[in-house]
Design brief:
Elements: E1 4-8, H1 12-22, E2 28-33, E3 41-47, E4 52-58, H2 62-67, H3 71-83, E5 90-93, E6 100-103, E7 109-110, H4 119-132, H5 146-159, H6 168-180, E8 186-188, E9 197-199, E10 204-206, E11 213-215, H7 218-228, H8 232-242, H9 247-270, H10 285-298
Antiparallel strand pairs: 1-2, 2-3, 3-4, 4-6, 5-6, 7-9, 8-11, 9-10
Helix pairs in contact: 5-9, 7-9, 9-10
Length: about 300
């Protein structure tokens, strides 16, 4: 299985910029079909003469303004992950536009959520996350935690006149968890859903570094657990494979994941964002936010 693509004609100014970066005008551009990317547009660039292929991420302007994406932070983490073989090799990052170009991983496709329910698949995902979490955050200037990112998006929602999105008791709990978070700071992905894990038939790769930052790593593990719908027994096995953490903190971070998703999707709804879900239908940001808000009471 590979990505489905359709050939496209690029605007002249974009084609010229890309030619200067890859060193040739002899390339073909394709748009990825059926890929769930709710913030950005992703293209494939193929250079028949050299045999090289690239992934081109065209960033949405709302990412920096409303989602708190820091271009320098994202570029630094993507570069480090690429050098470590955790993510695709970074070729170019434009700090002004957020355009990011990486080496194309041949035969790679995003994981399907149900795949994570298979123990060998989950173990590979955990091992890759663990490698990321061993990178010391001292290498990242200005690295932020997931709690700081949530705070940015809450300020954005307030500016968009969202009203009282989060109830006081939930915000108080978030503040308490932020204060209780372990001090060790490692590089974290912070958006570790199956569509951001690429499988090429031999190994896994992490992609999409917009929300990456620093933390103790348990937020990423919580995202994996939620994706797979694991019960407490399976989560104990997950933590044993990861080699750190406990069920109480994992449960707390699952709650924080729901909080993040609620605020993020509320922002997207307020911005009238439109994007296709994995099945090709429009993704309902408002409904997703309401679903995540309901989970805050359930958790």
């Amino acid at each position: 299985m590979t990505f489905q693509t359709r050939a496209i004609e690029l605007p002249p100014d974009l084609a010229e910029r890309l030619a200067a970066i890859v060193g040739t005008t002899a390339f073909e551009a394709f748009e990825l079909v059926g890929v769930q990317s709710l913030n950005n547009r992703v293209l494939q660039l193929v250079c028949p003469g050299s045999g090289q292929a690239y992934a081109v991420r065209l960033a949405s302007e709302r990412a920096a303004a409303h989602m708190g994406v820091d271009r320098r932070e994202e570029a630094a983490i993507a570069q480090i992950a690429g050098k470590a073989g955790i993510g695709p090799e970074l070729v170019h990052y434009d700090l002004d536009s957020g355009m990011m170009i990486s080496k194309w991983i041949d035969q790679a496709v995003p994981l399907q959520p149900q795949a994570l329910r298979q123990r060998p698949v989950m173990l590979q995902a955990i091992a890759l996350a663990r490698r990321l979490h061993t990178i010391e955050a001292g290498e990242i200037a200005g690295g932020r935690t997931i709690f700081e990112r949530i705070a940015h998006m809450e300020r954005s929602a307030a500016a968009l006149n969202a009203g009282e999105l989060i109830q006081a008791r939930h915000r108080n709990r978030l503040d308490a968890l932020a204060a209780a978070a372990p001090q060790p700071r490692w590089v974290t992905h912070n958006d570790l859903w199956p569509n951001n894990i690429l499988a090429d038939g031999r190994r896994f790769w992490l992609t999409d570094w917009e929300f990456s930052g620093i933390g103790d790593g348990m937020y990423d593990i919580a995202s994996l657990s939620l994706s797979a719908g694991l019960d407490a027994t399976a989560e104990q096995d997950l933590l044993a494979a990861y080699g750190d953490g406990d069920l109480d903190w994992l449960a707390a971070m699952k709650w924080v994941v729901c909080y993040f998703e609620a605020v993020w999707s509320a922002n997207m709804a307020l911005l009238s964002a439109s994007a296709p879900a994995a099945g090709g239908q429009p993704f309902d940001f408002k409904a997703h936010s309401e679903q995540m808000l309901a989970k805050l009471d359930a958790g």
